[in-house]
Design a protein that fits this description.
single chain, Immunoglobulin-like, about 35% strand, 6-stranded mixed β-sheet, 5 helices, mainly beta
């Protein structure tokens, strides 16, 4: 870290001015460097924490050096950085002291101390030097009394056997050694005699001479310990190492790459990362996106390497079995993208494309984003058969198919049209025969479909609006809904009711009967058609007055959709009382919008009693409304409905336009039938 990093620390100490004054302290702490190995260069960090820092403090650290090797060593100050708390560097000054020699430095002249040969220790030698820090300047009061931690980084260099490296600038002579050696320092030169070694070095202020020609070397682990001078023995500490962290981005392996590296050794190369599905490793990068292939010997600090990948691309092969591929089908796909869909193949004569399959016969409609590997898709075909339509002067919709394929079939057919006739369906014969609604997936062979028709008579009326009354089949009728299917292209299929009742007193069911019988399958209206109830009364009237007459051509076939008990008790039905077929109550029975008469389904020409579904659905009466003028008649205003009502022993009825309740099944009321008629305004 450069001196600019200290500005934050000075800001912290600047707060000292706001605190009460206190005596200047002079902290003294001893540390020791023990050197045990000739063959190395090492960086050693020393973290020193100072507490209660205030302006004017002078903090002193004595560093003792004990060289146990046969070579001399140089100690350099490589760096000072703040590693905890904030204080600006320009509030601090430093001194490197060795005997009478003092090297001062601060934020303005760090080059005076950084990377200089500040201390030399001879073979088997000992010595000491002092680092002194002074807190200058005006600290902000908020920093007065704070703590901070400084990290001093020293470099220890080995001299070749017998050599002593002169100190840059003539600052520091080698200290006396343990063998009784003698050190002499003058203004022009320095002489060191080391007992039996007999090594002499002369250093002047203008020239430096190493008699042995020795230079620093960088061969391995030199410094074994940098620790407080506790006198508790030698601490085995290797040369400075740093962590390497790998961000694999979905991979699973680092290729056996190291998790640490050592200063002066570095890492020559890195193996590729592995294990990311559907991707190929392209290289390591640092946090700025720069490629990283190695770590040099001179680099320091922890490293994070980021694995970079590229998604794999795979081939797609199509086996067409005599057909042609669609140009939109891709020849390749990419992992994490896949293929959303494939177009069908075409062009195989006498066949229709059914699907794409893989080599195991499994249908393929897409390739998922997570799939890998090359793919081969096989086109599957089915033989086609002809469909012929006999229309009897009708018109066939263009979207009815003229062919079908085994394994596919035809789900449904559209209705043909013929002016003045109602289409009854497609059949296997021109008359009678079996009705054909579809062609199954297992069918084979050519097919001929015959259109069956029923001549229709459109009833001419003066007005088609609800409430309009007109004559039909010898009786007066009232329009309740102008068009039951709301599709004018096939005419107006009106819902109508007979104005005069066909019976003034008919029961629904026998006394003591429930609307749903015990199994819940048959409802009250269907059962009333098999006994002398209102259903039978209506059916008999239709048979005697409409069926087989010319008037029947205007009658539209309908389905009544009468419910079972299970269907009836689904939402919105609520048990307000009771819990079964024989004891239920539903207080909002008149709001039931279900089970309306329809023109589709299992239809037949018939007369019928209205349901609440007809009232709300076809007639458009709101569910909160309990009466309508469309049900007010001048004679005998009450009549039965086919729907269940308030409770298990009630069926619905209308009285003077109001929706009523509480009449038991055997209570006798008038009966008014309804029809669906094809009408047209005159």
């Amino acid at each position: 870290m450069t001196h600019r990093n200290y500005r934050n620390w000075l800001a912290l100490l600047a707060l000292v001015l706001m605190l009460p004054a206190r005596p200047v302290q002079a902290a003294n702490t001893d540390y020791r460097i023990d050197i045990h190995d000739n063959d190395a260069m090492s960086l050693q960090e020393l973290d020193i924490t100072e507490h209660d820092v205030s302006e004017g403090d002078i903090i002193t650290h004595h560093i003792y050096v004990d060289n146990h090797t046969s070579n001399g060593h140089i100690i350099k100050l490589k760096n000072i950085e703040v590693v905890q708390d904030s204080i600006l560097l320009d509030k601090l000054s430093f001194e490197f002291i060795n005997g009478a020699a003092v090297v001062p430095f601060d934020s303005g002249n760090f080059s005076q101390a950084y990377d200089k040969n500040l201390f030399v220790v001879g073979s088997q030698g000992t010595g000491n030097f002092t680092l002194r820090m002074t807190v200058n300047g005006n600290l902000d009061n908020s920093y007065q009394g704070s703590a901070c931690t400084l990290r001093y980084t020293f470099e220890i260099l080995n001299l070749e056997a017998g050599g002593i490296m002169p100190v840059d600038g003539g600052v520091t002579p080698p200290p006396s050694n343990q063998n009784g050696g003698q050190n002499t320092q003058g203004n022009q030169g320095q002489t060191n005699t080391q007992g039996n070694q007999g090594q002499t070095n002369t250093q002047g202020t203008q020239a430096q001479t190493d008699k042995q020609g020795g230079l620093p070397t960088t061969l391995g682990n030199a410094v074994k310990a940098l620790l407080p001078n506790t006198g508790e023995g030698k601490l085995a500490v290797t040369a400075k190492t740093y962590d390497i962290t790998y961000n694999l981005d979905g991979g699973t392996g680092t290729g056996g790459n190291p998790t640490t590296y050592t200063y002066d050794i570095g890492v020559a190369s890195f193996a590729p990362a592995t294990g990311k599905t559907g991707h190929t490793f392209v290289g390591w990068e640092d946090e700025n996106g720069n490629p990283v292939t190695s770590i040099s010997k001179t680099e320091m600090g922890n490293k994070t390497l980021y694995a970079r990948w590229t998604p794999n691309e795979y081939d797609i092969t199509y086996e067409l079995d005599g057909g042609d591929n669609d140009n939109s089908n891709p020849a390749k796909y990419t992992y994490d993208i896949g293929v959303s869909s494939f177009a069908p193949a075409t062009g195989k004569v006498g066949h229709v494309f059914t699907r794409w399959e893989d080599e195991n016969g499994k249908p393929v409609t897409s390739i998922l984003k997570t799939e890998t590997g090359n793919k081969t898709l096989y086109a599957r075909w089915a033989p086609t058969y002809e469909i012929t339509y006999v229309l009897d002067s009708g018109t066939n919709p263009q979207d009815n198919p003229t062919q079908y394929a085994y394994g596919i079939g035809v789900a449904s057919f559209k209705s043909a049209t013929k002016s003045g006739y109602k289409f009854l369906g497609w059949f296997t014969e021109s008359s009678a025969g079996t009705q054909i609604a579809n062609i199954s997936t297992t069918a084979t062979g050519n097919k001929t479909l015959y259109a069956h028709w029923e001549e229709q008579v459109t009833l001419k009326v003066g007005n088609t609006d609800p409430g309009t009354e007109f004559d039909f089949a010898g009786s007066k009728w009232r329009i309740l809904d102008t068009d039951m299917d709301n599709t004018t292209s096939n005419g107006l299929q009106a819902l109508v009711i007979k104005v005069d009742p066909i019976s003034t007193s008919s029961q629904y069911l026998a006394s003591g009967e429930y609307y749903f019988e015990s199994t819940g399958i048959s409802n009250g209206y269907e059962r009333s058609r098999s006994i002398n109830g209102i259903g039978k009364v209506i059916d008999d009237w239709y048979k005697d007055n409409i069926a087989g007459t010319a008037d029947e051509a205007a009658v539209q076939a309908v389905a009544l959709n009468n419910p079972t008990y299970t269907e009836f008790t689904k939402t919105p039905f609520t048990f307000n009382s009771g819990s079964g077929i024989t004891n239920w109550e539903w207080h909002n029975w008149y709001q039931d919008t279900r089970f309306a008469t329809s023109l589709t389904g299992s239809v037949s020409k018939q007369a019928f009693a209205l349901s609440y579904g007809d009232i709300h659905g076809h007639m458009g009466i709101g569910t909160t409304v309990t009466s309508t003028d469309l049900f007010k008649f001048s004679s005998t205003g009450a009549f039965r409905l086919r729907s269940a009502a308030f409770s298990s022993q009630n069926a619905g009825f209308v009285s003077a336009g109001n929706f009523a309740r509480y009449n038991s099944m055997d209570y006798k009321l008038p009966v008014r039938p309804s029809l669906s008629l094809l009408i047209e305004k005159i």
